[in-house]
Amino acid sequence: MYFPSWLSQLYKGLSRPIRRTTQPIWGSLYRSLVQSSQRTNPEFNSFAVRTNTCGELRSSHLGQEVTLCGWIQYRRQNTFLVLRDFHGLVQVVIPQDESAASVKKILCEAPVESVVRVSGTVTSRPAGQENPKMPTGKIEIKVKTAELLNACKKLPFEIKDFMKKTEALRLQYRYLDLRSFQMQYNLRLRSQMVMKMREYLCNLHGFVDIETPTLFKRTPGGAKEFLVPSREPGKFYSLPQSPQQFKQLLMVGGLDRYFQVARCYRDEGSRPDRQPEFTQIDIEMSFVDQTGIQSLIEGLLQYSWPNDKDPVVVPFPTVTFTEALATYGTDKPDTRFGMKIIDISDVFRNTEIGFLQDALSKPHGTVKAICIPEGAEILPVFLNANRNWNSPVANFIMESQRLELIRLMDTQEEDVVLLTAGEHSKACSLLGKLRLECADLLETRGMVLRDPTLFSFLWVVDFPLFLPKEENPRELESAHHPFTAPHPSDIHLLYTEPKKARSQHYDLVLNGNEIGGGSIRIHNAELQRYILATLLKEDVKILSHLLQALDYGAPPHGGIALGLDRLICLVTGSPSIRDVIAFPKSFRGHDLMSNAPDSIPPEELKPYHIRVSWPTDSKAERAH
Ligand code: ASP
User: Is there an atom of ligand 1 within 6 Å of 107 CB?
Assistant: First the structure.
């Protein structure tokens, strides 16, 4: 198989996000994915009852007798058919002579999207009828025999990427939606990236791919877990939120380097762009430190990155959690654009403006601001750079303060400065949200702030080990999970001021999305027990197996998990993670195709010693 150079051009088109795709470019789909990722070319026709795929035929095949299988994409005046498979489109000429009447009947009567097998000769298209936009556009198939493999009934929607359809309809008929160019592209790119990740981890770095159980028991802290009833009265399995305990136990077992494309389950209710089941590239290794894991992941992404994108540049920049919060107001900053938060407290130390005075007099009180370039376009102006500041507080700002503010913020004509006063972290997170809102607004006005071809990776490190619990701020919870080791220089703080202890937890951020997180683990049973029992007030009995294992010569170890769905979503520029999962759940966690979750008759629940207690209103509904 050969790959002409224009394919790389077409491949650029393939990576366009779904909403911008106007015309499917079927012909180059699989070929270019293969070109971009594989060293050996796969044989697409082995074991099948065809000789070729629809997308592969060229002038070099002229005169060959071929057999093709595919779906009828469309038909023109009962003379031509366009046949489609995963590989591309090809034109088929319907025979018009009497002797081939039965072939003509099959091909003219089969509805669009029926699946057929045709045999015939590859011929040149008549001069002037070539289609340069189609990779197979110079040839056509003169059909001799045809077989209707299966007819297609009236479709709920047309199989064309540019036809608008609701997501509910796409999910209900997912198997039809999967025929679209964009879904084919997303799933094949996902498969290629995972294949390269496996190659990098197993073949280049000696990792072992190990499956861990999905029927497990409750893990303290973290997300809510799905329960699975067992036949023992009152006993339940839990579906693991991640293989965290198993991967650490594999290190105790001397496996040294583990990875898994792991399915994880979190019962977190409906949240945009979360799925109750999702996939992680889960990694753990022994005798490693934080920089070792970071370099491993940088190499992994570099190696598996699609060739048509700008190469991944390593090492990725690093910021501390504290810097990220102070500069971007979030622990997952989008570093594709500026508009950083600036502390302007000093400008207002002697201010007469009441609310600023008030804020600055409090502990951790600050005044912060961001400068929105050309923000006057999108916002009613609060403070702008020219002399006639359009703001209710403008009259109270002294000339010297105004000049200092302009200098600090580097404000230009037509910029808008958003200012807030209050407690440091609250002020930062408010401005962090406004920063993103303003970026959206500016982009709807046509300003390009976040280049869609840019992939901006960032490590966020030195997280606090604990955070105050949301529901009871006097209690602590783990910022990552309870197995995360404290920062070596902060261990003493665990016994004095645990809230101040930093951890060896690191997150990987891409374009403002958290795509991975991990930590160096605690391998000392006594320290692990102290953190669980004394600081987190967890029931250590639930984790006695892990604590025991740490006592039997557990090696120092650490790891990370990458969120595969989110990563592929960003790489393909898809609007939602549902677009990179073959059979995702709806926003409410339902499978709209099969209607799961579904009810179970009471007698089938009996072996599990379970009875449903219906909420009063649904009982009334069921009675109708
Ligand atoms: N198990 C962790 C998670 O799912 C990742 C890790 O610490 O390796 O977030």
Answer: no
Start-to-end Cα distance in the chain: 63
Q: In CATH, what number does 3-169 get?
A: 2.40.50.140
- What is the CATH number that goes with domain 337-444? 3.30.1360.30
Q: Which of 37-60 are b and which e, b meaning 16 or more Cβ less than 10 Å from the residue's Cβ? A: beeeeeebbeeeebebbbbbbeee
Vertex 77 angle, CA 74 and 79, to 5°: 85
| pLDDT interval class at 439 (50, 70, 90) | very high
Predicted TM-score of the model (pTM): 0.91
Hey, is 405 helix, strand or coil?
helix
Q: Answer whether 242 contacts ligand 1 (Cβ < 6 A).
A: yes
- Cα of 478 vs centre of ligand 1, distance in Å, is 12
pLDDT for position 621: 57
Q: Give the chain's mean pLDDT.
A: 90
User: What digits encode the pLDDT tens for the residues 485-510?
Assistant: 999 999 999 999 999 999 999 999 99
Long-range contacts of 178-181, Cβ-Cβ distance < 8 Å, separation of 24 or more: 178/582, 179/71, 179/113, 180/24, 181/21, 181/24, 181/25, 181/26, 181/29
* Amino acid in the structure at residue 332: K
Distance 322 CA to ligand 1 centre (A): 21
Asked: is 205-320+456-580 a CATH 3.30.930.10 domain? The reply is: yes
Q: How far is the CA of 208 from the centre of ligand 1 (A)?
A: 18
CA distance 182 to 194: 18
Domain ranges, ordered by start, for the chain: 3-169, 205-320+456-580, 337-444
For ligand 1, atom 4, the nearest C-alpha belongs to 242
